Amino acid sequence: MQRRLAIEDHPIQLTQRVCRPGSAADARDFARSFAALLCPEPPALTTENLLLLVSELVANALRHAGAVTALHLRADRERIEVCVEDPSPTHPQKRDPDLTGSQGGFGWPMVHALALDVAILPGAGGGKTVQAALAR
């Protein structure tokens, strides 16, 4: 049985985990297990929003950049931060949603609606890191 990760156990009051998911489903499973280990565990709505955010960012990286080089999840007392690294320098673009469902366009606005803040940073090797934070 895994021990819950109390933020108080860490002198810098930060809990962090990293993985390299091959699918949005893998990323959701990773995020769900991360949230379950936090102490205190986030409210159900926060966990649901975390899963949506992780799923969307990872799916976008896989679709538009071809890969996710790393998924970082960090939590402190106030926030849960999601960082998705990918090999493409191209920034996500807001576009009109395709109401037929074939071309997407819903994800990036949803990321901005769920997150407290969103940032895109240059990544190692010419890629990028998309960061988004949720209130804990």
UniProtKB/TrEMBL annotation:
It holds the Pfam family HATPase_c_2. Residues 21-131 form the Histidine kinase/HSP90-like ATPase domain. The keyword DNA-binding does not apply. Keywords: ATP-binding, Kinase, Nucleotide-binding, Serine/threonine-protein kinase, Transferase. GO terms for molecular function: ATP binding; protein serine/threonine kinase activity. The keyword Chloroplast does not apply. This is ATP-binding protein.
